[in-house]
Amino acid sequence: MPAERSIQIRARSLGRPGRHGRRAVADHTCRCHLPLDPPAEPHWWPSRDPEPDPDVRIVALHGETPTLLRDVRVTEGWHTEGVAATHPDATPPRPWPRIGRCWDGVEHPVVDVTARVPAPPRQPRQVGQTR
Ligand SMILES: [Zn+2]
Question: What are the extents of the domains in the chain?
């Protein structure tokens, strides 16, 4: 079916990252400087892959430094954290299919970084601690 085929090709090119710049396609690097090619390790494309198992608690865009930006699984979805996160305390969690995009709106593969990020101190800060 030629009509069906052309729709498929069109859908694929619409979803293709880096369509605004030839450079991005040529060297497979996004404008955000992260690689566009998926890594060899297990990864997910959140817009089309199902949410990973619950033991995957923290993900990051492939190539991103998890301490800078990461998405942490919470009850309501995925919460963006890290020193480069914008207003992390005021930003509500997002559903799985909506994570995985960089500031340029391009979807990147995400990888499991649960083991790479030290567990945050979850206890409330102790005020007035005595020695
Ligand atoms: Zn990007």
Answer: 2-116
pLDDT in tens, 35-88: 999 999 999 999 999 999 999 999 999 999 999 999 999 999 999 999 999 898
Cα separation, 19 vs 57, in Å, equals 32
Instruction: Tally the residues of the chain.
Output: 131
Say how many Å lie between the CA of residue 103 and the centre of ligand 1. 7
For residues 110 and 34, what is the distance between their CA atoms, to the nearest angstrom?
Answer: 11
What is the Å distance from ligand 1's center to 105 Cα?
Answer: 7
3-state secondary structure of 27: helix
Question: What's this model's pTM, rounded to 2 decimal places?
Answer: 0.70
